[in-house]
Write a structure and sequence with these properties.
The protein is built from 10 helices and 2 strands. With 251 residues, the protein is mainly alpha-helical.
């Protein structure tokens, strides 16, 4: 009965051509509105995906600010703004980011500049307001640390897969024969930056929830250290001390 509802049909399939000599690649779109998944570049970079997410992010920022301006939130303004940022902007431009490979500093900065634009609008801050002040005052995490956490959590998922699954075999091949720009090498560096053991056997001993809690605690420590290091370079912020990344609304 179920098979009758889901008949296989050639019209439902697409051919994906890989290689610079192919000119027959169709536009992979759903109802001619948006791309399905991420774009694979033959240059092993994320330029196409970053460009797509930036375009989407600009629209999301306008929507968030429109909501904040139209609704009287009073003392809940900043709390609501932060939650809108997390729900719409962060999730909107970072979906699938845990599987991106060869992520460069320039790629991350392009996405973070979008985030900074939103934070400055929320705070009505001057363009020269120090970057770290925006995140420390609002209790927000930089996108780079969100991406790193997502990669690490995805690594935990991979290590618990059945060894016969194709995804695990692909992951295993990278572990055994790592090459420059591999996803595996990137996530190992993430573990080091978060001060988490790179012994994958130890990772599998954690349950999904307990591992997420560990990553979250390490994420906040690493992000706070990074922001405080930048803050130390600005004399105007020298007298301000931050012991955690938390807004007054979340105390």
């Amino acid at each position: 009965e179920k098979m009758k509802k889901l008949p296989l049909n050639k019209k439902k399939c697409k051919k994906l051509h890989i290689g610079k000599d192919n000119n027959l690649c169709p536009d992979l779109k759903a109802h001619d509105e948006k791309y399905l998944g991420d774009q694979i570049s033959r240059f092993c970079d994320n330029k196409l995906n970053i460009k797509d997410r930036k375009g989407k992010g600009i629209g999301i920022i306008s929507q968030i600010m429109s909501l904040l301006d139209d609704i009287c939130l009073g003392q809940y303004y900043f709390g609501a703004a932060i939650r809108l940022r997390e729900a719409y902007l962060v999730n909107g431009i970072l979906f699938n980011s845990e599987v991106w490979y060869n992520m460069k500093e320039t790629d991350i900065r392009e996405l973070e500049e979008l985030d900074e634009t939103l934070l400055r609008k929320i705070l009505k801050a001057h363009s020269k307001t120090p970057l770290e002040a925006l995140y420390l005052e609002l209790g927000c995490l930089l996108l780079r640390y969100i991406i790193m956490a997502r990669r690490i959590n995805f690594l935990h998922y991979l290590t618990n897969l059945n060894k016969n699954e194709l995804l695990f075999k692909f992951f295993e091949a990278q572990m055994k024969n790592p090459t420059k720009c591999d996803w595996y090498l990137q996530v190992v560096q993430d573990l080091k930056d978060y001060d988490i053991s790179t012994d994958l056997n130890k990772l599998t001993s954690f349950s999904k929830d307990s591992f997420k809690k560990l990553v979250k605690s390490k994420q906040e420590i690493a992000a706070l250290k990074y922001l405080n290091n930048i803050k130390s370079e600005h004399s105007k912020l020298a007298n301000l001390k931050y012991e955690n990344i938390r807004t007054k609304n979340n105390n």
